[in-house]
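Can anyone check this?
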Amino acid sequence: MLQFIKFGLIGGFNTLVDFGILNALMYITKIYKGNGLILLNIVSFSVAVINSYFLNKYWAFKDKSSVDREKQFVSFLAVSIVGVVINTLVLRVVSTNIDPMFGLNQQIWTNIGKLLATGVSLVWNFIGYKFFVFKK
């Protein structure tokens, strides 16, 4: 349970990183939906995932081993690539295929889509990291 709590704290921090970068990029480019959002999301998600690797490896999963570091990082990258695809797909569908509801503007609606995308990809990433990347 403590491991999941640590994973959640790391996830919360990385979510702030992801949302912060995504919103900065949306503000700079004025892209809030459509295919242009895909690249912005990949950039923001990737920065958060790289940070996540180190925090999860050394704090949440306490993996201090140096054996097969390259293999472990490749596994982490594979899980994370699936995670970014899931995250981006959910974000793209919500922000572009569903009109903003409740009188929200497009930027807020895109952030709601990002929140949903983060929740879905969080489940995938935890399972992937726990059972494939940092397994003991």
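Reply from J.R.: I decoded it. The chain has a mean pLDDT of 89.
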